[in-house]
Amino acid sequence: MLTPAQATDTAAAIVARARAAGADAADAVFAADAATAVQVRMGALEDVGRAESAELGLRVFVGHRSASVSTSDLSDDALATLVDRAVAMARLAPEDPWAGLAPADRLLTGIKPDLDLDDHGDPAPDALKARALAVEEAARSVPGVTMSDGASASASRVTIALATSHGFSGGYSLSSYNASASVLAGETGAMERDYATHTVRHLSMLDAPEAIGRLAGERVAARVNPGRIQGGAMPVVFDRRIAGGLIGALLSAISGAAIARQTSFLLHALGTPVLPKGVHILDDPHRPRGLRSKPFDGEGLPVSPTRIVDDGVLQTWLMDSAAARQLGLEPTGHASRGVSGSPGATATNVHLTAGATPRATLIGEIDRGVLVTEVIGHGVNGVTGDYSLGAAGFLIERGEITRPVSEFTIAGNLKAMFLALTPASDLEFRGSMNAPSLRIDGMMVAGG
After folding, report:
1. Element (H, E) at 349
2. How far apart are CA 168 and CA 333, in angstroms?
3. Run of H or E including 325
4. pLDDT, position 448
5. What is the mean pLDDT of residues 268-293?
6. Domain 4-221, classified CATH 3.40.50.2000, yes or no
7. What are the beta bridge partners of residue 318?
8. How far apart are CA 20 and CA 436, in angstroms?
9. First to last CA, the chain
10. CA distances from 175 to 33, 118, 183, 298, 303 (A)
11. Where in the chain is the domain with CATH 3.30.2290.10?
């Protein structure tokens, strides 16, 4: 696999060729990856795979017209054809007054931050197989677990580079390790399924296989023989494993593209309270070994920690350059792009800050409510904020978690839900979007 420097040279070379072919401006993304994954089921090897790929994406501008193309054929003839095709397509594309590269005076210069994202490891398939088997064995050993749906272990490395025609070039590499298990419990015809997974940048940070498997088994064993719930308005506690989904809905609503299109339920919310006082949402692209850490954004701009919500008040939109131009604002360093297409805007390592109240206390104050551990479906309206999802979890009665329940629906409006939430103190940093358990009073629950 190419080094970041070699990948950067590859991206810069195709940009130079595009300029020579008549493009007024251009940028290119190069991505190469190598991954090994092993899957086991019921103690036997089910699949082992190794994949290696390299892909180059080119975006060219002719005036305010643009086109994007990509290829995995990196031969000289293929790249020459790619450049000619991209420039020809751009000349035929409709004009977009907001299109263009990021402002040249905002580009990252100097030494790029070292975020320790790559441990340069490449575990042998035998080591991955042993880890997957250990995860599954631990899950199956939990009392009540009746069957395995499989366990896996994987390792990968990715090199990413970006080059632009107005002065930016840079690259970096990432390593990634994962282990997971999915198991079933209960009698045939009434089985429940649950899982546990862990992903990290450095192998040394990965949870022990026994811990991952045991968590999967304990989760599914607790869900056996679920009942139904009588509907009504009641407190809902979102378990921290799914609470990040609510934060994701807020981030989608404050993307520059959604604001520019006027298709967001938070369209007029900038500078106003969107969460309770004392609650913050922080974005940190510089977190060492973070799952979404990066030294620069998808347009070559510097990235920095951002208070998206400070003391409950929304502080910023998340903007790439095109959305920023349309809104008459400055890009925020949140541009994100793949090999093909134009940049969008996303946050990086995000968390909603922990509250002062233990989760047990938040639950203990509830006379009748529900703890949600799984949501099902895509019932979020980004324009109105209406929220309605299928769910499963546990009934809360007189301050105690009493029995599993399933096949019910939780509903509300996100604007009201955000303002009503109370965060517990159980925040853990396990992924790229983290939140503590969240209690929201007065949600509508409909039984199955």
Report:
1. none
2. 14
3. helix 321-327
4. 65
5. 98
6. no
7. 255
8. 53
9. 52
10. 10, 5, 27, 19, 20
11. 4-221
